[in-house]
Amino acid sequence: MTWRVTITPDAGWDGIAIQIGRRMGEGHTQQLRFEQTADEVRPAGTDMPQASMKLTDDLAMALLDALADHYGNTTGGRQQRADYEHERARVDRLIGIVDRALTATWQQR
Length: 109
What we know:
Number of strands: 3
Strand content: 15-25%
Structural class: alpha+beta
Radius of gyration: 25 Å
Largest sheet: 3 strands, antiparallel
Oligomer: single chain
């Protein structure tokens, strides 16, 4: 079962609304809800007693993908790395062409 994350602007909160769910089969959807009744203010220098949110890796990755899509970025370093490798190969080909042209010109002298 794959988590699905939907992000929509929320002007009332001056931020975003995040819907998290996954299909459970037979037309049922499990919706993940976080209840926040109030913020807790802690004195400086003290640790937070518990995590604000705990997510499984697959849910965290789905949330990352949705946030990156919403804010217009690529997700993770994989796409950036693939783009870098593609550009590097293109530059290597260009260097090879220039090198062969210069070598041919030099040999003609």
